Amino acid sequence: MVKTYNQGSNPNMRRPVVKEEIVTLMREQQAQNKGHLKVLETFAKEHNIPIIPHETAVYFRWLLESIQPKKILEIGTAIGFSALLMADSAKASQITTIERNPEMIALAKENFAQYDERGQITLVEGDAVDLLTRLDETYDLVFMDSAKSKYIVFLPEVLKHLSLGGLVVIDDVFQGGDVALPLEEIKRGQRAIYRGLHRLFDATLDNPGLTASLLPLGDGLLLLRKTADEVVLPD
Ligand SMILES: C[S@@+](CC[C@H](N)C(=O)[O-])C[C@H]1O[C@@H](n2cnc3c(N)ncnc32)[C@H](O)[C@@H]1O
Asked: ∠ CA 143-45-100 to the nearest 5 degrees?
């Protein structure tokens, strides 16, 4: 029997925010993952573990090959798929990735031991809420792929640890399209996420210290570039 992990569902698999046939085209016609990335993608699918969808993975490869960041921080490792993809796309980068779920930590450790050929990845175990304040490095790229309601909570620390001109990529910001609806139409159990995402948009999309762009890949990416030493966020 194939083990499934209690990682929640992956909304972008069920509720694409662009036309279904375009999602299919992006997933089927763009170059497929190869080698260990293919192995991990298949494992994640079989075990119901959410990882970045193919169109996002293709974009990441393009972005990281282009900008070659030296220091990367990831929040939300899962089995290590996106960390290994980034390591492969920016071979001189050092990647710190944070994960709190013991089952995911065990799987990520195995995968990094087997596939992190150049020793680029450091797995930090624990909750990003506690760990972010303890970081003493500066990163060129931060990938946030954890609980959606927490992005706005993590953002001040993330920006403190981001170099001037550095990038933040935040995954799953469209809530399967719900984020565009009025609050009254959102199920009560989803409202904390909805509110967190709207606070994130309010803080970033028109902030003079940031250049921001929303991209409808997967369940939506928010891209930020830090353009001022001090980025002022609303309380
Ligand atoms: C969508 S998965 C990450 C997928 C991975 N980035 C990939 O694409 O291969 C989200 C992960 O974030 C972890 N996570 C959620 N909130 C966290 C937190 N506050 N601190 C650390 N990890 C967290 C979850 O346990 C889960 O494994």
From this structure: 45
Q: Model-level pTM?
A: 0.95
Tell me which residue has its CA closest to atom 4 in ligand 1: 51
What ligand 1 atom has the least distance to the C-alpha of 74? Answer: 6
Q: In what order do the strands lie in the sheet with 221-226?
A: 121-125, 94-99, 71-75, 139-144, 162-171, 221-226, 210-215
How far does the centroid of ligand 1 lie from the alpha carbon of residue 95, in Å? 15
Per the structure block, which two tokens stand in for 167?
Answer: 């990038």
Assess if residue 68 is contained within a domain. yes
CA 92 to centroid of ligand 1, rounded, Å: 24
CA-based nearest residue to 220, from 7, 83, 16: 16
Answer whether residue 12 shows pLDDT above 50: no
Give the CATH number of the domain where residue 104 resides. Answer: 3.40.50.150
Closest CA to 70 of 90, 85, 86: 90
